[in-house]
Amino acid sequence: MHAVDVHKIELSKYEIGHYQFDFQLNDDFFAALEKSEIVGGDVSCVARLNLREDDFDLSIEAQGNVSVICDRCLDRMELSVSLDEMVEVDERSNSLDLDWLAYELIVVNLPLVHCHPIGDCNPDMDALLQNHLCSTDEDPEAY
């Protein structure tokens, strides 16, 4: 099982300079998280750390795909992930959990609504949903 904090780095162990950390977030990582909207995936991540005397810069790049649950049919669906962002971290931090920081960036960059393109949802669930739609001819007061 992939531990959630595999890529935790202790800043005190590094001298001033530039560092790069390459890592993957895969199905095992996402399965280890509780109550995550991401249920699987394969995302390649690169963290770049510029450590200075009094502070540091951290950027994280992530490319790949994640699996989420479709809000309409409840089947799994794939979403593409492509981001490169600077990360703000409390400068008093002694350690950085790169896995968790990358995960948080991925989640906030996902669309709010997760739905297959029209026509790609599970046909059985789509038929059930169609049976429960209200038509505009029905009186809403009747319910």
Topology:
Layout: E1 8-10, E2 17-25, H1 27-32, E3 38-51, E4 56-69, E5 76-87, E6 95-97, H2 98-108, H3 123-131
Antiparallel strand pairs: 1-6, 2-3, 3-4, 4-5
In words, what does this structure look like?
By secondary structure, the chain is an alpha+beta fold. The chain contains three helices and six strands, in the order E-E-H-E-E-E-E-H-H. The protein has one domain (8-142). Helix content is 18%, strand content 38%. The strands form two sheets. Strands 2-3-4-5 form a four-stranded antiparallel β-sheet. The chain has a two-stranded antiparallel sheet with strand order 1-6. The N and C termini lie far apart (50 Å). Mean pLDDT is 88; it is low at 1-5.
Instruction: Let me know the average pLDDT.
Output: 88
Q: Class by helix and strand content? A: alpha+beta
Unreliable residue runs: 1-5
Number of strands: 6
Spatial order of the strands forming the largest sheet: 2-3-4-5
The tally of helices reads 3
| Bulk shape | elongated
The whole-angstrom Rg is: 21 Å
Order of helices and strands: EEHEEEEHH
Helix content: 10-25%
- Largest sheet geometry: 4 strands, antiparallel
Number of spatially distinct domains:
1
Strand content: 35-45%
Cα-to-Cα separation, first versus last residue: 50 Å
Would you kindly provide a brief summary of this structure?
With 143 residues, the chain is an alpha+beta fold. Helix content is 18%, strand content 38%. It has helices at 27-32, 98-108, 123-131; strands at 8-10, 17-25, 38-51, 56-69, 76-87, 95-97.
